[in-house]
Amino acid sequence: MSRSISLAVIPGDGIGPEVVAQGLKVLTAVLPQDAKLETKEYDLGAKRWHATGDLLTDEDTAALKTHDAILLGAIGDPSVPSGVLERGLLLKLRFLFDHYVNLRPSRLLPNTATPLAGDPSIDFVVVREGTEGPYTGNGGSLRTGTPAEVATEVSVNTAYGVERVVRDAYERAKARPRKKLTLVHKTNVLVFAGKLWKDTFDRVGKEYPEVTTDYMHVDAATIYMVNDPARFDVIVTDNLFGDIITDLAAAVSGGIGLAASGNVNPTRDFPSMFEPVHGSAPDIAGTGKADPAATIRSVALLLEHLGFTAEAARIEEAVTADVTARDGSPRTTSEIGDAIAARVAG
Amino acid sequence: MSRSISLAVIPGDGIGPEVVAQGLKVLTAVLPQDAKLETKEYDLGAKRWHATGDLLTDEDTAALKTHDAILLGAIGDPSVPSGVLERGLLLKLRFLFDHYVNLRPSRLLPNTATPLAGDPSIDFVVVREGTEGPYTGNGGSLRTGTPAEVATEVSVNTAYGVERVVRDAYERAKARPRKKLTLVHKTNVLVFAGKLWKDTFDRVGKEYPEVTTDYMHVDAATIYMVNDPARFDVIVTDNLFGDIITDLAAAVSGGIGLAASGNVNPTRDFPSMFEPVHGSAPDIAGTGKADPAATIRSVALLLEHLGFTAEAARIEEAVTADVTARDGSPRTTSEIGDAIAARVAG
Ligand SMILES: CC(C)[C@H](C(=O)O)[C@@H](O)C(=O)O
Ligand SMILES: CC(C)[C@H](C(=O)O)[C@@H](O)C(=O)O
C-alpha cells in the first residue's frame, strides 16, 4: 500500500467549501509524517455552470480519473433548475466512475440528538446500489405540458449490477461481528426487479452460510428503523430505496450533520468519491453553522478505503469524542474542525 | 343522501377476518335505527386462490361494483408467492375501481405509543396517488435468471392522473384549519415525472390562493417525519412514495395497529374501498392479539365518505377514548371491538 494520496477535491456549492476545508484540515492532521498528500481542487457546481454552462467536461473527467479518490462537499443551488446539477454532475460522477457501492454507515454516538425515545442502540451500514435503478435517467415525457402528458421513469436492474453489490454487502456483513444482512426492496409490487434482487440475494447467500439473512419491504423497513433500529446490521438495497432509508437512518442516528457516505468502486478501476449525506444547505452557507462532522467522517471512510485503517479509526474516535463532549455551546464550522484535528493529532 | 348502505365485505387473509368482524360490529352499533345496512361477504384471498386458482373473476368484479363501498381486512399469505395476491387482487381492485385517492390520516392520540421522544403533535393526512406510478405493473425481465438479465419497472404518470389527485389534495387542505399542502416527490432525480408533478402542483395551486404550499424531496420528508411531524398538514405524493411514508407516518403516530386508510374514487363511479394500513399478520392470526382499531377507524373513513359524518366522528371519538384509557391490560381483538362498539352506542 502506497503511503501517498492524490486527492481530487470538489468543494461544490453552499456549505460544501466550508465543510470540505475542515475535512482536509483533519486529513492533514491525521496523516503520518511519511505519507504524502497531494490535493487538486476542481471548480464544479452552480458557479461554474452559471459562468460557462459546463457541468462536467471530458477534460474534467479525464483529470478526476487520475486521482486515488475524490472528496466532495455538496452539489446543488436554488439558482439552478432542480435536477441539472444533480443529474449532470453528482449522479454523472457516480455513474461514470461506476460507484456501485454507496456506503452509508449509521452509528448513534453518545450524547447525540436522536428523535427516538429511550436509548436505542444503532450501528448498521446501508449498502445502497449506486449505478442502476430509477437513477439511470431512463424515461421521458410525451405531449409535455398538455393535459394528455405521459411521463415515465424506468428503473433498470441488471443481474450484473445487482449481483456485484449484493456480493459486496455479504462481504461486509461477514466481516462484522453480528454477520447479518437484510435485503430491503418491494418485491410484492415491483415484481420484475424484486425477483431479480431476491433471487440474487438468495443465490449469493448460499456462498455465505455464516451470514444470517432476512428480507423486508421498504415500507416496513421505515417502521423498524424507528421502532427497532438495533435489529439492523448490514442492509443492501436499490438506489432509490437506499436514498430514502439512509436519510431516515441519518435522522434517527444523530442527524444529517453527522452522516457520512462513500461512493465506492471496489474494483479500483476508478477513484471512489466520499461526501457527506447532507446537501449544500444554501440557507446556512457562510454563517459558520454547518457541522463539518459528516464530511470529516467521510474522510475516515476515504482513508479506510485507501488502506489507512488506523488513521480512519483515529478520526472516528476523535469525532466520537468531540460529539460526546458537546454541551450545546455554539462553535463555528471551523472551530469544530480545529477541535477534531487537535484530537487526531494529539 | 340515502340512509342505506350496501357494503361488500372482503375479510381476506390472516387477521383480516378477525378485524373485519370488529369493524362490522362497530358499524352496526353506530348506525341510526332508520339506516339500513346490507352486507355481502366475498371470499377472496389466499384460501380461494389455493382452492380454485381464482384471484378476482369478472363475476366478482361485477358483483363488487354494485355496492356502495367495500370493507377489506387484509390480503396476503406466506403460502402464496410474493406479488400474486397483492397485484392480482389488492392492487387490481384499486386500479379497476379507479381508487385514485389513497387517503391515510395520521393523528397521534393521547396515551399512544410513539417511538418519538418528547410529546410531538401529529395530525396530518397523506393523499397518496393510487392508480399510477411504479404500481402499474409496467416493466419486465429479459434473459430472466441468466447473468445477462435486465429487469425493468416503469413508473407511469399522466397529466390526467396527477392533476385529479393533486386537485383532491388541495380541496382537502382548503377544508382543514391549517390549509397547508406539501408535495413530496424526488424531482431532482426523477426529472420527467417530477416535472409533471411539480408543474401540476404549482398550476393547480393558483386556484387555491388560501392554501400554503411547499415541496419536499421524499428522502428529506422521512427526516421531517421523525424530527418535526407537526409541520405536516396535508401531503400529496405518488403511489410508491406514499406507500413508504405512510408506513413511517403510522409508526410515529401510534403504530400500524391504529392506521386507517381509504382507497377512494371521489367521482363515485365505483365503490371506494376501506382497509387498515397493516397487512394480514399471519404470525398472530387466530390468537386474538390483533388490534381492530385500524379497521374500525377505516369504517369511520367509509362512513365519512358515504355522508354519515356524525357517525364517523362518533367512531373516531370512541377509538380515541378507548386508546386513551388503555392501561396495558391485555384484551382480545373481540373485547376491543366490544368496548368501542359500546362507546359508540352509549
Ligand atoms: C442530491 C441527490 C441526487 C442525491 C441522491 O438522491 O442520491 C442525495 O439525495 C443523496 O442521497 O446523495
Ligand atoms: C400490500 C401492498 C401491495 C400495499 C401497497 O404497497 O400499496 C401495502 O403496502 C399498502 O400500503 O397498502
From TrEMBL, chains A, B:
Pfam families: Iso_dh
SMART domains: Iso_dh
Binding positions (Mg(2+)): 219, 243, 247
Residues flagged as site, Important for catalysis: 135, 186
InterPro entries (UniProt xref): ICDH/IPMDH, IsoCit/isopropylmalate_DH_CS, IsoPropMal-DH-like_dom, LeuB_actb
Keyword Transferase: no
Bound cofactor: record note: Binds 1 Mg(2+) or Mn(2+) ion per subunit.
Gene Ontology CC: one annotated term: cytoplasm
Compartment list: Cytoplasm
Protein's UniProt name: 3-isopropylmalate dehydrogenase
Organism: Streptomyces coryli
Name of the encoding gene: leuB
